[in-house]
Amino acid sequence: MTKTLTTLIKLNKNKLDKILKEVELREIEKKRLFDKKNMMQNELNAEIEKFSSTEFSFMLEKYVEKSNKMIKTLDAQMMQQERIIDALRQTIKEQFAELKKFEIAYNNRKIIENDKDKKANDKIMDENNINKFFYNKNSDL
Predict the structure, then answer these.
(1) Which parts of 6-100 are beta strand (E)?
(2) What is the mean pLDDT of each run of 10 residues along the chain (141 residues)?
(3) CA 82 to CA 129: how far, in whole Å?
(4) 3-class secondary structure, 139
(5) How far apart are CA 40 and CA 71, in angstroms?
(6) Contact call for residues 16 and 93 (beta carbons, < 8 A)
(7) Per-residue pLDDT, 83
(8) Which of 8, 54, 68, 100 is deepest in the core (most CB within 10 A)?
(9) What is the pLDDT of residue 1?
């Protein structure tokens, strides 16, 4: 039974590690999207400042429109990453709770086995002491 529990504990730790790595990757992706969004907004602001009062301002409107669409797309992608991260964190909590259940069961099983071993050893020691007592008593006669 303890081998089964140790196997379950290892499997759950492995699952937990995979989920944690997935969260880390999603966080990195979210940061990359955030940085890209900030870069696009900074470029957009610079272009607006640079060309708003020039003869090319008629082309600026299309550029601003396209850039705003891309920024909204990046926002949507960041929100999607955030939802996935939240779901993964919930899964981590559930997986951790399950892991703790198995660890507690394993520890309880170990305590029971140790108690059984101790009782068996105590019984053997008692029998040895009784036999020794009778041997000493018989040898004294």
Answers:
(1) none
(2) 84 95 97 97 90 76 91 97 97 95 92 92 89 80 59
(3) 69
(4) helix
(5) 7
(6) no
(7) 98
(8) 8
(9) 64
**Chain mean position to CA 116:** 36
Distance between CA atoms of 33 and 81, rounded to whole angstroms? 10
What pTM did the predictor assign? 0.72
Q: Which two tokens stand for residue 135?
A: 């041997």
Polymer length in residues for the chain: 141
pLDDT of residue 13: 94
**Residue in this structure with the two tokens 């601003």, named with its chain if needed:** 64
Amino acid at 26: R
| Burial class for 20, CB neighbours closer than 10 Å (0-12, 13-18, 19+) | middle
- What is d(CA 109, CA 113) in angstroms, rounded to the nearest whole number? 6
89 is written with which tokens? 């964190």
- Full domain range(s) for residue 35: 1-140
- Quote the tokens at residue 132: 């020794």
Q: Residue 141's pLDDT is what?
A: 59
Number of domains the chain is built from: 1
